[in-house]
Amino acid sequence: MTESALRDEICRVGESLFARGYLHATAGNISVRLPDGGYLITPTDACLGTLDPARLAHVNAEGVQTAGDRASKTLTLHRRIYGADPQAGCVIHTHSTHLVALSLAPRWGADTPTSDDLLPPITPYFVMKVGHVPMIPYHRPGDPVVGELVAQRMTRMQAAGIPIRAVMLERLGPTVWHGSPAEASAVLEELEETARLWLLTGAAPLTPDQIDELRQQFGAAW
Protein backbone atom coordinates (compact mmCIF):
# COMPACT_ATOMS: atom_id res chain seq x y z
CA MET A 1 0.00 0.00 0.00
CA THR A 2 1.12 3.58 -0.62
CA GLU A 3 1.75 5.90 2.31
CA SER A 4 -1.46 7.75 1.49
CA ALA A 5 -3.45 4.50 1.51
CA LEU A 6 -1.85 3.44 4.80
CA ARG A 7 -2.79 6.77 6.37
CA ASP A 8 -6.41 6.20 5.34
CA GLU A 9 -6.33 2.61 6.58
CA ILE A 10 -5.06 3.63 10.03
CA CYS A 11 -7.94 6.10 10.30
CA ARG A 12 -10.48 3.54 9.07
CA VAL A 13 -9.36 0.94 11.60
CA GLY A 14 -9.21 3.49 14.42
CA GLU A 15 -12.74 4.70 13.68
CA SER A 16 -14.07 1.13 13.47
CA LEU A 17 -12.49 0.04 16.76
CA PHE A 18 -13.66 3.20 18.52
CA ALA A 19 -17.24 2.84 17.25
CA ARG A 20 -17.43 -0.73 18.56
CA GLY A 21 -16.05 0.03 22.01
CA TYR A 22 -12.55 -1.40 21.72
CA LEU A 23 -11.23 2.11 22.41
CA HIS A 24 -12.43 5.02 24.50
CA ALA A 25 -11.52 8.71 24.90
CA THR A 26 -7.88 9.14 23.78
CA ALA A 27 -6.70 5.67 24.79
CA GLY A 28 -4.79 3.46 22.35
CA ASN A 29 -2.53 3.87 19.34
CA ILE A 30 -1.88 2.40 15.90
CA SER A 31 1.27 2.34 13.78
CA VAL A 32 2.34 0.93 10.43
CA ARG A 33 5.74 0.20 8.94
CA LEU A 34 6.44 2.07 5.70
CA PRO A 35 8.24 0.59 2.68
CA ASP A 36 11.21 2.94 3.26
CA GLY A 37 11.76 1.59 6.79
CA GLY A 38 10.02 4.48 8.52
CA TYR A 39 6.71 4.48 10.34
CA LEU A 40 3.37 6.19 10.67
CA ILE A 41 1.91 6.33 14.19
CA THR A 42 -1.10 8.00 15.74
CA PRO A 43 -0.40 11.20 17.71
CA THR A 44 -0.22 11.26 21.49
CA ASP A 45 -3.57 11.84 23.21
CA ALA A 46 -5.46 11.56 19.92
CA CYS A 47 -8.95 10.06 19.75
CA LEU A 48 -8.65 7.11 17.38
CA GLY A 49 -12.27 7.56 16.37
CA THR A 50 -11.62 10.95 14.77
CA LEU A 51 -8.14 10.73 13.28
CA ASP A 52 -6.98 13.03 10.49
CA PRO A 53 -4.76 11.20 7.96
CA ALA A 54 -2.66 14.33 7.39
CA ARG A 55 -1.85 14.71 11.10
CA LEU A 56 -0.48 11.21 11.72
CA ALA A 57 3.12 11.31 12.91
CA HIS A 58 5.77 10.32 10.35
CA VAL A 59 8.90 8.80 11.89
CA ASN A 60 12.01 7.84 9.94
CA ALA A 61 13.90 4.55 10.21
CA GLU A 62 16.10 5.99 12.98
CA GLY A 63 13.06 6.85 15.10
CA VAL A 64 13.19 10.60 14.50
CA GLN A 65 9.86 12.29 13.85
CA THR A 66 9.85 14.23 10.60
CA ALA A 67 6.22 15.37 10.23
CA GLY A 68 2.76 15.36 11.78
CA ASP A 69 1.51 15.87 15.33
CA ARG A 70 3.66 14.64 18.22
CA ALA A 71 4.00 10.86 18.05
CA SER A 72 2.43 8.55 20.62
CA LYS A 73 4.52 7.99 23.73
CA THR A 74 4.46 4.25 22.91
CA LEU A 75 6.63 4.75 19.82
CA THR A 76 9.56 2.90 21.39
CA LEU A 77 7.40 -0.15 22.08
CA HIS A 78 6.13 -0.20 18.51
CA ARG A 79 9.64 0.09 17.05
CA ARG A 80 10.92 -2.75 19.25
CA ILE A 81 8.11 -4.99 18.02
CA TYR A 82 8.93 -4.21 14.39
CA GLY A 83 12.57 -4.91 15.12
CA ALA A 84 11.78 -8.29 16.65
CA ASP A 85 9.36 -9.43 13.93
CA PRO A 86 10.28 -8.62 10.31
CA GLN A 87 6.79 -9.73 9.20
CA ALA A 88 4.99 -7.18 11.38
CA GLY A 89 3.45 -4.40 9.31
CA CYS A 90 1.05 -2.92 11.86
CA VAL A 91 0.93 -2.62 15.66
CA ILE A 92 -2.24 -1.79 17.61
CA HIS A 93 -2.51 -1.02 21.33
CA THR A 94 -5.85 -0.55 23.08
CA HIS A 95 -7.32 -0.47 26.58
CA SER A 96 -10.04 -3.02 25.74
CA THR A 97 -12.32 -3.47 28.73
CA HIS A 98 -12.45 -7.24 29.18
CA LEU A 99 -8.73 -7.68 28.64
CA VAL A 100 -7.82 -4.99 31.15
CA ALA A 101 -10.27 -6.57 33.60
CA LEU A 102 -8.48 -9.90 33.24
CA SER A 103 -5.13 -8.28 33.98
CA LEU A 104 -6.55 -6.93 37.26
CA ALA A 105 -7.67 -10.37 38.46
CA PRO A 106 -5.72 -13.52 39.39
CA ARG A 107 -4.62 -15.28 36.21
CA TRP A 108 -5.99 -18.68 35.28
CA GLY A 109 -2.47 -20.18 35.30
CA ALA A 110 -1.13 -18.28 38.30
CA ASP A 111 -0.63 -21.55 40.20
CA THR A 112 1.87 -22.64 37.52
CA PRO A 113 5.09 -20.67 38.12
CA THR A 114 6.26 -20.96 34.50
CA SER A 115 2.98 -19.75 32.99
CA ASP A 116 2.31 -16.07 32.34
CA ASP A 117 -0.37 -16.56 29.70
CA LEU A 118 -3.28 -14.17 30.09
CA LEU A 119 -5.88 -16.65 28.80
CA PRO A 120 -6.36 -20.39 28.48
CA PRO A 121 -6.96 -21.87 25.02
CA ILE A 122 -10.76 -22.07 25.26
CA THR A 123 -11.71 -21.74 21.58
CA PRO A 124 -10.11 -23.03 18.37
CA TYR A 125 -10.04 -19.59 16.77
CA PHE A 126 -8.21 -18.10 19.74
CA VAL A 127 -5.56 -20.80 19.33
CA MET A 128 -5.36 -20.37 15.54
CA LYS A 129 -5.74 -16.61 15.14
CA VAL A 130 -4.13 -15.26 18.33
CA GLY A 131 -2.03 -17.85 20.15
CA HIS A 132 -0.20 -17.36 23.42
CA VAL A 133 -0.56 -13.93 25.03
CA PRO A 134 2.12 -13.35 27.70
CA MET A 135 1.49 -10.85 30.48
CA ILE A 136 4.08 -8.07 30.67
CA PRO A 137 4.46 -6.70 34.24
CA TYR A 138 3.16 -3.20 34.91
CA HIS A 139 5.25 -0.17 33.99
CA ARG A 140 4.01 3.37 33.51
CA PRO A 141 2.57 4.26 30.09
CA GLY A 142 5.36 4.99 27.62
CA ASP A 143 8.15 3.48 29.75
CA PRO A 144 10.85 2.35 27.26
CA VAL A 145 11.55 -0.67 29.48
CA VAL A 146 8.30 -2.19 28.20
CA GLY A 147 9.64 -2.31 24.64
CA GLU A 148 12.70 -4.21 25.83
CA LEU A 149 10.59 -6.70 27.81
CA VAL A 150 8.27 -7.33 24.89
CA ALA A 151 11.13 -7.76 22.40
CA GLN A 152 12.87 -10.20 24.74
CA ARG A 153 9.71 -12.24 25.13
CA MET A 154 9.11 -12.30 21.38
CA THR A 155 12.65 -13.53 20.79
CA ARG A 156 12.34 -16.29 23.40
CA MET A 157 9.06 -17.50 21.95
CA GLN A 158 10.44 -17.46 18.40
CA ALA A 159 13.45 -19.49 19.55
CA ALA A 160 11.06 -22.05 21.07
CA GLY A 161 9.19 -22.32 17.77
CA ILE A 162 6.08 -20.60 19.15
CA PRO A 163 5.93 -17.11 17.65
CA ILE A 164 3.45 -14.69 19.21
CA ARG A 165 1.46 -11.78 17.80
CA ALA A 166 0.08 -10.31 21.04
CA VAL A 167 1.09 -9.39 24.57
CA MET A 168 -0.89 -7.99 27.48
CA LEU A 169 0.47 -4.95 29.31
CA GLU A 170 -0.66 -5.38 32.89
CA ARG A 171 -3.31 -2.80 33.90
CA LEU A 172 -3.04 -1.06 30.52
CA GLY A 173 -4.21 -3.26 27.68
CA PRO A 174 -3.28 -5.52 24.79
CA THR A 175 -0.71 -4.83 22.11
CA VAL A 176 -1.10 -6.86 18.91
CA TRP A 177 0.70 -6.94 15.57
CA HIS A 178 0.32 -8.51 12.13
CA GLY A 179 1.06 -7.84 8.48
CA SER A 180 -1.57 -5.14 7.93
CA PRO A 181 -3.96 -2.92 9.91
CA ALA A 182 -6.91 -5.15 8.98
CA GLU A 183 -5.08 -8.31 10.10
CA ALA A 184 -3.88 -6.75 13.35
CA SER A 185 -7.40 -5.50 14.05
CA ALA A 186 -8.75 -9.03 13.56
CA VAL A 187 -6.26 -10.37 16.12
CA LEU A 188 -7.35 -7.74 18.62
CA GLU A 189 -11.04 -8.50 18.08
CA GLU A 190 -10.55 -12.25 18.54
CA LEU A 191 -8.48 -11.62 21.67
CA GLU A 192 -11.04 -9.30 23.28
CA GLU A 193 -13.89 -11.66 22.44
CA THR A 194 -12.01 -14.57 24.05
CA ALA A 195 -11.47 -12.49 27.18
CA ARG A 196 -15.19 -11.72 27.31
CA LEU A 197 -16.09 -15.40 26.90
CA TRP A 198 -13.63 -16.41 29.61
CA LEU A 199 -15.02 -13.85 32.08
CA LEU A 200 -18.58 -14.98 31.31
CA THR A 201 -18.01 -18.73 31.49
CA GLY A 202 -14.66 -19.75 32.98
CA ALA A 203 -14.74 -22.52 30.37
CA ALA A 204 -12.33 -25.43 30.50
CA PRO A 205 -9.40 -25.23 28.03
CA LEU A 206 -9.23 -27.34 24.93
CA THR A 207 -7.50 -30.66 25.56
CA PRO A 208 -3.90 -31.28 24.43
CA ASP A 209 -5.21 -33.61 21.69
CA GLN A 210 -7.62 -30.95 20.43
CA ILE A 211 -4.82 -28.37 20.32
CA ASP A 212 -2.51 -30.79 18.54
CA GLU A 213 -5.19 -31.32 15.89
CA LEU A 214 -5.27 -27.54 15.32
CA ARG A 215 -1.51 -27.59 14.90
CA GLN A 216 -1.65 -30.41 12.40
CA GLN A 217 -4.61 -29.15 10.38
CA PHE A 218 -4.10 -25.39 10.47
CA GLY A 219 -0.51 -24.81 11.55
CA ALA A 220 -1.58 -23.21 14.82
CA ALA A 221 1.43 -21.88 16.78
CA TRP A 222 0.59 -23.12 20.27
Tell me what the structure shows.
It is a single chain. With 222 residues, the protein is an alpha+beta fold. It is 40% helix and 14% strand. It has an eight-stranded mixed sheet, with helices on both faces. Helix 5 (144-159) links the parallel strand 6 and strand 7 (166-169). The longest helix has 21 residues, at 181-201.
Poorly predicted parts: none
Quote the distance from N terminus to C terminus. Answer: 31 Å
The description of the largest β-sheet is: 8 strands, mixed
Specify the structural class.
alpha+beta
The count of helical stretches stands at 7
Output the radius of gyration.
17 Å
The 3D shape can be described as: globular
In total, how many beta strands? Answer: 8
Strand content: 5-15%
The proportion of residues forming helix, as a percent range, comes to 25-40%
Q: How do the strands of the widest beta sheet line up side by side?
A: 4-3-2-1-5-8-7-6
Order of helices and strands: HEEEEHEHHEHEEHH
Keywords:
globular; single chain; 7 helices; alpha+beta; 222 residues; 8-stranded mixed β-sheet
Topology:
Layout: H1 3-19, E1 29-33, E2 39-41, E3 57-59, E4 65-67, H2 75-84, E5 90-93, H3 97-103, H4 124-129, E6 135-136, H5 144-159, E7 166-169, E8 173-178, H6 181-201, H7 208-218
Parallel strand pairs: 6-7
Antiparallel strand pairs: 1-2, 1-5, 2-3, 3-4, 5-8, 7-8
Helix pairs in contact: 2-5, 3-6
Brief account:
With 222 residues, the protein is of the alpha+beta class. It contains seven helices and eight strands; from the N terminus they run αββββαβααβαββαα.
